[in-house]
Amino acid sequence: MPKFAYAAIDQTGNPVEGVTKADTVGAARSILVAQDLFPTKIEERRGMLDFEITKEKVKKKELMNFTRQLAVFVKAGIPITDALVTIGDETDDVALRRALSNLVDDLRNGGLFSTATAAHPEVFPEYYVGIVQSAELSGQLDTALESLSEYLEREIDTRGKVVSALSYPLVVMVMAFGTVLLLAGYVLPQFKPLFEELGAELPLPTRMMLFFSRFFTDLWFITAAVAIVFISVLMFLFKHPTGVLWKQRMMLKIPVISGIVEYALLERFCRILGAMVKAGVPLPEGLKTTTEATSNIVFKERLEVARAQMLEGKGFSQPLIDTELFPGAAKQMFKVGEETGTLDAQLEVASIYFDRELESRIKRFTTMFEPLMIVGVGVMVGFVAVALVSAMYGVLNSSNAAM
């Protein structure tokens, strides 16, 4: 059971400090209140061996729920420190609970909410902090929090669509490869002594499968070397800066896949920038934050060039058009938004357009990919089956001829 260090005031007004055991911060607070103590600070005490090398990131869903709850509290006129304490007591996410506890301490020491959130990048993204900062200056924190919760909900929904569309084909493919490897690497080699004893002439598919199965028995070191090289390549592509850049450039050139990646990036760009402009964030600052939040290095480089041109006085729409990242419909929306002063609305419309187009492209991809996958899996499994069955017939025919 976790331990919580607390600072409290007793009935006589004297400060009291100590440690109590409880499942959550809320449970610890209830224990102290039952002891006629008014807690002023409660922090989870961690053991000497219980430390973090890197701070654990909070899931987008947890951040969305927190933002929505905080918006309701602020709109109801409840002090933000009380709201943070209540939400922190109820949350099950340990990383979020610790961050909210620190936020409460910073606010009680006279800090700003935006400044306190900026100290926890593992919880609050940079665009989140920027929107909150502008909302504090304009006095529209509740409205900004509602917009942030809606954006996070749409982002979670979009990511869920991509994952659900790709999960089924990938699971089937992995199971098919596993089945083929099991048959070729374990089942077929069991019959090899029988084939050699009978001296039967084996058909070509069976000889091919027996040759392939040697890489799991006699030549296992080659298979191990290939596996190590494969894992090393994956680590290079996902961890090393050069590999990440190469992978991201390649993803933008693969047919069908490139369209999904591009529209996912454009939808995120328009949605974040639209939320920041709506919250009153200055456009150059909003574009800077949005660019830094872009996950693709190729997009980030071009958007940084567009921001530099914007600071030179070349407007908003033309620098973005010059990046050649946006389709014609989005370019027109940017122009209209810039000329009419409705950029936030046009960016929201553009994000909806990209979201719908992304969903359409995902459906198109799965519609095309699933039949190809089924045919490929059928060919692999069928080849193994033919290799086994034809070998059996060859053995039987040889035995009958010998008799």
Write a structural description.
Strands 2-1-3 form a three-stranded antiparallel sheet. β1 (3-9) and β2 form a beta hairpin. The longest helix has 60 residues, at 343-402. It has 16 helices and three strands. 73% of the residues lie in helices and 5% in strands. It has 403 residues and is mainly alpha-helical.
Strand content: 5-15%
Structural class: mainly alpha
**Sheet with the most strands: spatial strand order:** 2-1-3
Distance between the termini: 76 Å
Q: Largest beta sheet, briefly?
A: 3 strands, antiparallel
Number of helices: 16
Helix content range of the residues, please? over 70%
Which residues sit in consecutive blocks of at least 5 with pLDDT less than 50?
48-54
**How many beta-strand segments?**
3
Radius of gyration: 30 Å
Order of helices and strands: EEHEHHHHHHHHHHHHHHH
